[in-house]
Amino acid sequence: MPKISSKGEHMPASPIRKLTPYADQAKLEGKKVYHLNIGQPDIETPEIMLNAIKSIDFKVWAYTPSEGTLSYRKKLTEYYNKLGYNISPENIIVTNGGSEAITVALQTCLDSGDEVIIPEPFYANYNGFACMGDVIVKPILSHIENGFALPPISEFEKLITEKTKAIMICNPNNPTGYLYSNDELSELKDLCIKHDLFLFSDEAYREFCYDNREFRSPMHLEGLDEHVIVLDTVSKRYSACGARLGCMITKNKEVINSALKFAQARLSPGMVAQIAGTAAVDTPSSYFEEVNQEYTERRNILVNSLNKIDGVFCPNPGGAFYVVARFPIDDADKFCQWMLEKFSYNNQTVMMAPATGFYSTPGAGKDEVRLAYVLNKQDLKEAMVCLEKALLEYPGRTESKKLKAESL
Amino acid sequence: MPKISSKGEHMPASPIRKLTPYADQAKLEGKKVYHLNIGQPDIETPEIMLNAIKSIDFKVWAYTPSEGTLSYRKKLTEYYNKLGYNISPENIIVTNGGSEAITVALQTCLDSGDEVIIPEPFYANYNGFACMGDVIVKPILSHIENGFALPPISEFEKLITEKTKAIMICNPNNPTGYLYSNDELSELKDLCIKHDLFLFSDEAYREFCYDNREFRSPMHLEGLDEHVIVLDTVSKRYSACGARLGCMITKNKEVINSALKFAQARLSPGMVAQIAGTAAVDTPSSYFEEVNQEYTERRNILVNSLNKIDGVFCPNPGGAFYVVARFPIDDADKFCQWMLEKFSYNNQTVMMAPATGFYSTPGAGKDEVRLAYVLNKQDLKEAMVCLEKALLEYPGRTESKKLKAESL
How far A283 CA sits from the closest chain B CA (Å)? Predict the structure, then answer.
């Protein structure tokens, strides 16, 4: 039998999806499972976008240009220039989801063995994308105690080698929800200029900033045009994860020209998705206001409930729709699996993503879990009751953490 | 300024799309351009598929499972089992276009530096996909004189090293239109078993076989279950290139399990595309009969017209909707560019793909051009008149070839 690649062997399984068989089994046994594991929002897609799909009037479902249709890129330019990105359609390559934007950016900028520095915990699939291109991820620990703020620049400096080609951030952050400040971005700017590095800015959650905090992008920084590559998607912005429509944006012409060759190899992004994406840019601002109000309330419920649970600590993040919380447990992977396999309360349980999958440093995040607040408020409350009971029952509960919490 | 990757520098530009700026310029100058360069059929997408798009009734455009929805994979199973593939939904991973099926298969089976043997000329983007994963393509020349039949197995044997992991074929072939026979596939089977190699079978053009010739897949061969990976797409089958919907199929469980990890990293194929793809399986057989009738007539027009032109030789292929023809020219790249930049006849010209882009051996295919018969018959005829005039006028015309043709 022919052997698969060592890449294929070592490719990490998704920490978000790997517990799915246990959840399926729990459901077969009649348990209700609250899905806080995955970033699939329950928010409705804007009607304007769905209507655009229903109104297609072409006869041939044809390829579009590899970089995306000009009409979609023009419309996107409108959207981004309202944010002050000051771009033109030539700065955009439309991709099959944000995922493809990330892989194309990595391929364009990093060779096999090259290194990208990423503050951890980070979006787990960065590991997978890096594995595809034999790129090395160099993680820098950020800490739950300060809400996962940007680690000191001196920590980045320590990791920079001849092989370092880029820094990657996700802002607001998945999985921590942390929203980077202008000062933090300015520090990264100086670092990237000093060491001539690309700055990849994954902005999938741009629209989700709470408490009147303002989103800032490296695109807003002067003098960084040749360094910044924005990686974006409509998935979360319009609750349209199934559209598989993203883009990469850069003012670096050499990067665009090279990225276009990768885009040409896979021919085209989806045509219907681009039609819908074009319409989506006209989504009324009231949609986002309502959605952000809803997410703010959910975040408040989740963070308050979590911090009330004995032994649990959860920072209050400024954006996205995730939190990473510390639980009084021995092993987040074991705990999350146990929740599905062994535990139930009123025939209900909660599915969460062990934070270990979001760290690259072995052993890090072992007592942390990512929760996505993508369920309605009532379900979130029920899920938190369930979680509290589970933490009391879980055989791997760590007393030290419990005591620490009690002493607060 | 940060430097792009050497991969990004060396990534080949699409030979099909790289002349586009010249075509755009020709159109600006008011010329009519007959596009025989690209495999974008003008055939209408089945109504059943378009109606499925218009009838979507979901509220949240959500992720689907990474391997594709069960309902789509079940429906696909129906389609493939009618062909005698004898598969179940677990053998399928749905992808964003056939392109993603190819990249996932390569990543799953080949590491950086590993080799895949491909008869050339081959689909140009295989070079790009290989470049993405630092995989080495080892080409084997097939020859226009015998219609680009499978080269002798002894030629494959000569290329096999420790690094050889797979053989890749495209059947019916893009760019040559050659349809592999059962005997040829059997020879490949023996070779793959002897050397324990994967056999990648790109079957994008399966539905397009002419003159009552039967399509045969390596899936029909016994004893090859662990070796065969079928790479497929709905793009050509249903004239739905813009759907970006493909799949990989294999009975090798280790391959499926590993491929699923790559699929999980990019989260999901498109949801609307899968809904449309599910409907498409019920496309009435009359659709395919009409389409094949149309393509047969077009092929006959194209092949007959080409062979009537002084100095031109074109085999009569059994499938797909391409031909590779030999022209009495010094350099196909120069000629195709010249056609757009310098030539016009009645204010018309023809865009074709130089065959050089479909060869990996330097210098091969220099007097060959790929033509796609994706235009209606009248346009094809006009394009051939245009081409004949162009070959008479082209300053790089080679007299030796002309003489050879005259002596036939």
Answer: 15
Nearest-neighbour CA in chain A from B399: distance (Å):
36
Pick the CATH number of A6-44+286-407 from 3.90.1150.10, 3.40.50.10490, 3.20.20.140, 3.40.50.1010: 3.90.1150.10
Q: What is the pLDDT along chain B (408 residues), one digit of tens a residue?
A: 899 999 999 998 887 777 988 999 999 999 999 999 987 888 999 999 999 999 999 999 999 999 999 999 999 999 999 999 999 999 999 999 999 999 999 999 999 999 999 999 999 999 999 999 999 999 999 999 999 999 999 999 999 999 999 999 999 999 999 999 999 999 999 999 999 999 999 999 999 999 999 999 999 999 999 999 999 999 999 999 999 999 999 999 999 999 999 999 999 999 999 999 999 999 999 999 999 999 999 999 999 999 999 999 999 999 999 999 999 999 999 999 999 999 999 999 999 999 999 999 999 999 999 999 999 999 999 999 999 999 999 999 997 544 444 444
**Which residues does residue B345 pair with via DSSP β-bridges, in sequence order?**
B348
Whether residue B278 lies within 8 A of chain A, CB to CB, comes out as no
Decide which of 3.40.630.30, 3.30.420.40, 3.40.50.300, 3.40.640.10 is the CATH code for B47-280. Answer: 3.40.640.10
Rounded to two decimals, the ipTM of the complex is 0.94
Vertex B98: Cα angle to B232 and B182 (nearest 5): 30
Contact A196 B2 (CB under 8 A): yes
**Which residue of B lies nearest to A101 if distances are taken between CA atoms?**
B266
DSSP annotation of A64 reads -
Q: Is B389 exposed, middle or buried (0-12, 13-18, 19+ CB in 10 A)?
A: middle
The alpha-helical segments, DSSP class H, found in B219-369 are 253-265, 271-280, 285-308, 332-341
Task: Tell me if chain B has a CB within 8 Å of the CB of A196.
Answer: yes
Q: What pLDDT does residue A59 have?
A: 97
The residue in chain B having the minimum alpha-carbon distance to the alpha carbon of residue A259 is B8
CB A56 to CB B55 under 8 A?
no
Cis peptide before A12 (omega within 30 of 0): no
Chain A segment 224-263 residues within 8 A of B by beta carbon are 226-227, 238-244, 252, 254-255, 258-259, 261-262
CATH 3.40.640.10 residue ranges of chain B are 47-280
Looking at chain B, the domain(s) classified CATH 3.90.1150.10 span 6-44+286-407
Buried-exposed string B4-21: b where 16+ CB fall within 10 A, e elsewhere: bbebbeebbbbbbbbbbe
Residue A269 to chain B, least CA–CA distance (Å): 7
SS (H, E, C) A155-175: HHHHHCCCCEEEEEEECCCCC
Q: What angle do CA A379, A386, A348 make, to 5 degrees?
A: 75
Of A40, A61, A240, the CB nearest to B45: A61
Residues of chain B contacting A240 with CB distance shorter than 8 Å: 61
